[in-house]
């Protein structure tokens, strides 16, 4: 079984910084710390309204952080232009507006094939590894394949938000989607809402190559520090992967 990569999403360090409008806490400092704590990549979402990560943060992350950057972005001409200018390692296309989403919240790739096709094409052409943040839904996986995106990121929000039989059902859906991704030749990632309590069953899915985790790690860092929260997550992922 391949190693499971951890992408640390630093958006909410910027959320706290922006609450006061200054420079502290700096998400780029958090990215450097995440690298030292064992992260395999840094994820940042440059939202259209710039509510957390800013253009300057992306400039500085690209200039100073050695880890691969996964730029989360809406499928808009402005964001495609920014991605093509920076050429991050990866770009994950996420929905920002309600009409771009499926009922659960992933990108409705199947419903906007013609809108997405030229943007995915331009990013792939530039050598950026494109992923689509989708629900664990066979139609959305087929759409990703049809669009030529090499990677899908499965939305784990519903799995994390529910307990009991509904969580089991969501986990089964994610397991089936990861198997479908492998059969389609797509690299499979997962993320959204993952925490210490929920990560193990997802990390144990062999077809998943990367988890992107942010809000919980930054929140937990208030109590234990960012280094400790990332190291604990890494340990739980590695143990689940090793079948312990
Ligand atoms: N993956 C994607 C595509 C996301 O948009 C987000 C949230 O920005 C995450 C993973 C991380 O989610 P969380 O912050 O809840 O861990």
UniProtKB/TrEMBL annotation:
EC number of the protein: 2.6.99.2
Gene3D superfamilies tied to this protein: Aldolase class I
GO CC, any one term: cytosol
Pfam family of the protein (one): PdxJ
InterPro entries recorded: Aldolase_TIM, PyrdxlP_synth_PdxJ, Pyridoxine-5'_phos_synth
Sorted UniProt keywords: Cytoplasm, Pyridoxine biosynthesis, Transferase
Gene Ontology terms: biological process: pyridoxine biosynthetic process
Gene Ontology molecular function terms on file: pyridoxine 5'-phosphate synthase activity
NCBIfam families per record: pdxJ, PRK05265.1-2, PRK05265.1-3, PRK05265.1-5
Protein name according to UniProt: Pyridoxine 5'-phosphate synthase
Origin species: mine drainage metagenome
Lineage per the UniProt record: unclassified sequences, metagenomes, ecological metagenomes
